Input
Amino acid sequence: MKKLILMSALACSFMSAQAQDYKASLEKVFSVFDTTHSQDQRIELSNKLSLIAKKWGDEWVTHYYAAFSKAILSYNEKDNAKKDAFLDDADKELQESVTLLKKNNDETHVLTAMIANARMSVDPMNRWQKYGKLFSENLESAKELNPDNPRMYYLQGTSKFFTPKAYGGGKKAAMPYFEKAENLFAKEKGGDIAKPYWGKGMNAYFLAQCKTEDKE
Output
């Protein structure tokens, strides 16, 4: 019995050490990715996140961050074919997350919406019906699971921000979403990379933009 207890304790200790290893690696790489503005550096860091996802392939969140990084890369890429290629990779990594979780959670729904929005931005005229619907449906699903997730309001805000005023968008229409997100970001503890907390800085940037007057 003592031997069994000792073996169980050692197994738990080993699993805990492994978890700390992946969290430390993920936190180190993602924190730099999240703060740099260089596309070249982001590509390099995104590749590192993909390697982390391969090394710790049984952790849903490693695939989640790899997927997130590919989505961000697509937004900053000018070539449409490359945009879609990044998003193909994002879809694959996100599907790995969902498979490991055996379901969608609010964060995977939010990231699905983000990827859909990125797909739509490649060719808005021809893609808005398909991906606009996917964007809205996933944010609604995220809200049902966790109405206090600030990232879904941030995404709604950015969608409104980049929609022409004639179609119900613009700074004034976007501001309430960014304000809502700001309040929820303030309540979010953060600090645990396994519980996604990205978006606060980007939300603050867009909120500041909404408070400036448009130049005619």
About this structure: Residues 2-33 form the longest helix (32 residues). The mean pLDDT is 91. DSSP finds nine helices and no strands in the chain.
